[in-house]
Each structure stands twice: as C-alpha cells, then as structure tokens.
C-alpha cells in the first residue's frame, strides 16, 4: 500500500503543490474541500518559491523563502571571505611594522617588544591581527618619530594601523550580522516548508473520506492511490555534467520520484563496472568529487523509502575531467 506521508524534501513539496492546486480547482467542490482550497495552497507555494513580476514589472517580483535563505547564506559566505581578505591585509601591515621596529626593539622577541603588544614571548602574527594592529596604533601614536609614512607598499603609521583595525572590526560586524540574517532566513524557510507540508497533509485528510483506495482523483490531488505499490518509482530525468577541467567532479540532477525520501547514487567505471563512488542523499541533486581523471563512468540513481528501493535508472555515461 502506498504511503501518502508528506515528504520533507523541498523539491518534492514544491513539485507536489501545483498538482494539488490544479486538482482542488477541478474536484474541490465535489469532494467538499472547504479548508485547504486552491488559494490557501497557492499562498503556501508562493511563500516558498516567490512570485514573478507582473506586466511591465507591476507588481514587482517577490522572492520566495528558499531564495531569500539562499541569498542570505551566500551573503554570509561573502562576508566571511571579506573578513579573511582584510585580515590578510592587516597581517601584511603588521609584518611591515615588525620590519620597521626590529632595528629598534630587536630581531627576536624580548621584553622591549611588550611595548608594541607582543606579550607572549613570540613575534608570531595570528590569522586575525586586530589586537596587534590596535597595539601598534597605540605604539606609533606614542612614538610618532618611529613611523615610516613613506614606506612602500604599506605606510607604517598609527593612522594606517587604525584604518586596518577598523576595517577588520567592520568586517567582523558584517559577518556577525550576516550570520544572524542567514539564521533568520533559514528559520523562515523551515517554517514556510512546514506550513506547505501541513497544507498538503490537511488536503489529504480532508479529501480522504470521499475517496476510495483506487480512486484516480488521489493522483489528481498529487497523492498516491492507497492501493498502489509502496516503493517509489524509478527516478527519471537524470542529467550528469562534468566539472571544470581538473576538478575531478560530477554534478548531478534528476526529477523527484514519488514516495521517495532519499536516493542512492552510484558511479561505476564504464569499462568493467567497478564501483567508484556511492552516496545517499535526500535532495534531487548531488556533487561527486575525487573521481579518477580521464575515466568514462556510468552514473545511476535509485529512489528509496522505508518500504524499499526502486531499481536504478538508466545509466548516464560521462568522462571525468
């Protein structure tokens, strides 16, 4: 017997909702669907995937919760990269400061270096040099004659150290803010996905009293007929693309399979069938890495749920580069 539990996978839910909406429009009245109407379901779908712009951009497009989370997550990654960059620039200035002060304070650490902020018995520079930049700012403010404003490519001055320190502080604050924004966007996405899943579950339960186990209207509402087999069907639409030269990776995408809660992806050597990789994933995309260069492989996908596993789809041949 097919299981009509609602998938937790985003791609499956957003694929199921349009069919459910069309089914409710067609059969909602005769099935006495009062609560989980087409507008109700459409609102849950729009919240997840967004709405396109109207004619001439009026009304403007509205991004969905998934897109908002994706953008927030990407922004957090970008802010982290920016922090790494300003820390790298700050470390370069710290090394320039060290070069200027070594003739005065010593080529190796000694107690004189404590005045410049090196308190730990070492002249090592950490990945994040904020504290050292602040100490150098104070040092050069106190000893302006030790500054070298004409040094190339980096001027060694209290002002330069202050600017580099402020750049790191600003980047750290941006990382913190982007992390909070990404966390909020992720929560909103999960809440939206939960609302969409609840709407599908409510439609299923509201329609069930009017439907026999073999009624084809189950399918029109995006569900399985309870009399159908429980295992998921074979996945379809598998596309495999090799990564950039030298990446040794493959990028996969396929259509969601009804009743599937996960997928088994296998990669075999085309010449002899030797398995090279196997992964289990919940989404309908996958990236396979560290494959042998120049080898032609066959990629297959099987759909899985608690009742069993489908046979593998027809294999796709591709050469790893």
Q: If you had to describe this structure to a student in words, what would you say it looks like?
A:
The protein has 321 residues and is of the alpha+beta class. The protein has two domains: 1-228, no CATH class; 239-319, Sandwich (Immunoglobulin-like), CATH 2.60.40.10. Helix content is 43%, strand content 15%. The protein contains six helices and ten strands. It has helices at 10-27, 38-49, 65-105, 130-142, 158-207, 217-220, and strands spanning 50-51, 62-63, 239-242, 250-253, 262-269, 275-281, 285-288, 296-305, 308-309, 316-319. The strands form three sheets. Strands 5, 6, 8, 9 and 10 form a five-stranded antiparallel sheet that branches. A three-stranded antiparallel sheet has the order 3-4-7, with no helix packed on it. Helix 3 packs across helix 4. The model has no long low-confidence stretch (mean pLDDT 94).
Strand content: 5-15%
* Shape, principal axes of CA atoms: elongated
Number of helices: 6
Nearest-integer average pLDDT = 94
* Global Rg: 30 Å
The helix/strand order is HHEEHHHHEEEEEEEE
* Helical content (DSSP H or I, runs of 4+): 40-55%
Structural class call reads alpha+beta
Multimerization status: single chain
Distance between the termini: 44 Å
- Give me the count of strands: 10
- Major β-sheet annotation: 5 strands, antiparallel
Taken together, the total number of domains comes to 2
Parts with pLDDT < 50 across at least 5 consecutive residues: none
